[in-house]
Amino acid sequence: MPYDPRIHHRRSIRLKEYDYTQPGAYFVTLCTKARQCLFGDVVKGEMRLNYLGHIAFNCWQAIPEHFPHVELDTFVLMPNHLHGILLITDISLGARHCRAPTIEQFGRPVCGSIRTVIRSYKSAVTKLINAICNTKGTSLIWQRDFYEHINRDQGSLHNIRQYIVENPWRWAEDPENPQHYPENQEFLLDIPF
């Protein structure tokens, strides 16, 4: 479907004038659709990945294979979200899987941008999980968009790394933990493993 401003009017949460391809440390958070706990459980402060969690974990680990200008820093996959720091290093290495417009537009990724990296990651995870669960053509895995924070100094980066590492220990108090809203359990996918 071609771009139509009357129906394709998503409001971006990205900074309008910021170049998301420039070198730097980007803290990202991706959430599952309806906050479904798809990727495993936290037991005694440790994330225990299930089969789908291993898929999401392995796809995250593979990001630098597809985007050689991106390095992985600290990250954690939780039952219903992922926190991670992506480092854009040498932009001259570029990305292998996108076209090259200069301005982000609907349906036209900017090569090497954080948005393109996350879009590719979410797509890979969704494709693999949909194939396993026989749900092709539907998008039951990820919430639309993602949250990002641009790290501007080492102090901020240190604090975010600490937050990520400690995330499994805080899961019991997390308001997104299904133990806090058992009436919403019907939203969970019926995964056979």
What are the defining features of this structure?
193 residues, alpha+beta, Alpha-Beta Plaits, four-stranded antiparallel beta sheet, 25% helix, disordered C terminus
Beta-strand share of residues: 15-25%
Strand order of the largest sheet: 4-5-1-6
How is the main sheet built? 4 strands, antiparallel
Q: Could you name the CATH homologous superfamily?
A: Transposase IS200-like
Distance between the termini: 36 Å
How are the SSEs placed, and which strands pair?
Layout: E1 24-31, E2 40-43, E3 46-49, H1 51-61, H2 63-66, E4 70-77, E5 81-88, H3 114-133, E6 147-151, H4 154-166
Antiparallel strand pairs: 1-5, 1-6, 2-3, 4-5
Summarize the structure.
With 193 residues, this protein is α+β, with helices and mostly antiparallel strands. The protein has 4 helices and 6 strands.
